[in-house]
Amino acid sequence: MYTYEYPRPAVTVDLVIFTIRDGRLQILLIRRGEAPFKGRWALPGGFVREDEDLEAAALRELDEETGVRDVYLEQLFTFGEPQRDPRGRVITVSYFALIASDRQVLRAQTDAAEVQWFPADEPPALAFDHRKILDYALERLRNKLEYTTVGFQLLPRKFTLTELQQVYETILGRELDKRNFRRKVELLGILEETDEKKMEGVHRPARLYRFKARQFEKLKDKGILFPF
Amino acid sequence: MYTYEYPRPAVTVDLVIFTIRDGRLQILLIRRGEAPFKGRWALPGGFVREDEDLEAAALRELDEETGVRDVYLEQLFTFGEPQRDPRGRVITVSYFALIASDRQVLRAQTDAAEVQWFPADEPPALAFDHRKILDYALERLRNKLEYTTVGFQLLPRKFTLTELQQVYETILGRELDKRNFRRKVELLGILEETDEKKMEGVHRPARLYRFKARQFEKLKDKGILFPF
DNA sequence: ACAAAAGTGTTGAGAGTACACCCATGC
DNA sequence: GCATGGGTGTACTCTCAACACTTTTGT
Prior knowledge:
The structure is a homodimer. Chain A has helices spanning 54-66, 130-147, 161-172, 178-188; strands at residues 10-21, 24-31, 41-42, 45-47, 72-79, 90-98, 115-119, 158-159, 191-198, 206-211. In chain A, the strands form 2 sheets. In chain A, strands 1, 2, 3, 4, 5, 6 and 7 form a 7-stranded mixed beta sheet that branches. By secondary structure, the first copy, chain A, is an alpha+beta fold. Chain A contains 4 helices and 10 strands. Chains A and B meet through strand 5 and strand 6 of A and strand 5 and strand 6 of B. Chain A binds a DNA duplex through helix 4.
């Protein structure tokens, strides 16, 4: 058995957990109960355990805060500036997660005053360098939206085309043409019609669709295929 | 001052250093002199120092192995499987670097038998999980080539259009149409003609061009702009 | 004069964008 | 019957892809 004689930083994972709520892109934040940054909002996260894979640590934190599993999770970036944590050297591996809009139930035990959703584009002041992490996550999400199907991870299993379009409009921050959007989605061949209709609204019911691909899909054959 | 009571993994950086040599995409590898994997080839890398930023550590390793600075460097992914290093818990932050083809001089002190370039698509057996890191770097490089100007980082400051095209063909692994390629590059407006010509060849000399943008540039306004 | 790489335009097909009206339902 | 969101087609423009010959130089 060999050992190392090198300084060992602490390693954490931090999560940017996105969902769509009230027609806005929102993120989950936790209010810190301890110094430093006591009382400030921060990204959920925590230390990586001794024999725990990084992604496993991220999934564990996600489960602890939201009770949700089986969500889209992607490693984002690793931040390691020596001064990013006033307590000492802490390197953090950041992840972003997408929660479907019908699964955003928080843990029963969580105190609503301490765990809350905030609009991603108007977050409160954040602890540490979490604002930088958030900004990076937003940029990545917007980019990926254009050439992958990540967007579908934010919707329930069955959804209307208008709901899908709203996800894209919300994240991209601009309006899309309804007819062009629908033609494009159909052309991609990634949706399945169901026989059901959404009867909630007061007006004409919309047909519900289901996403065909299992989890996630790159959308390029030659060049890009999702430039709405 | 606060301290943590958590296990601390060792943290390293590993580099996938690309260049174009003999018309092929190649990577720099180092032969390990110690167990584990003694005698195997491995990616250059090393431990992150106590008060050293991650990117600074990557730049330091790069300088130590190649004597090169001011190159394109990008964080790739952080690998942290508990069993990836038999000596204990080691988390590695991987980077990829692009070295211009006229700057691939190795450190004078390096022993040629211990530091060598290898074709990126036919590497020797690698230590640890370095093959996985290499594969990931290759995938990322190919993707970025299509919507950014990273490819220019592999060329000298002045280059011919044919050389530029060969970089793209080499990395993408397919042939491109000369006329379409040139029209596209011209349309992007990122090159500057020089008055010089490359007189090396035996035949008609080619005009030399210079890359306008300082370092690196995203190439999308609406959708992708670089789908050669 | 010849070998070799440099350089240069046109055409057809497909995708993106802009744009306006009828339909189905609840009240 | 009316208010509201659901649903549908066409025309123009622009970019992509395929394709072959002339030019310039060294030997």
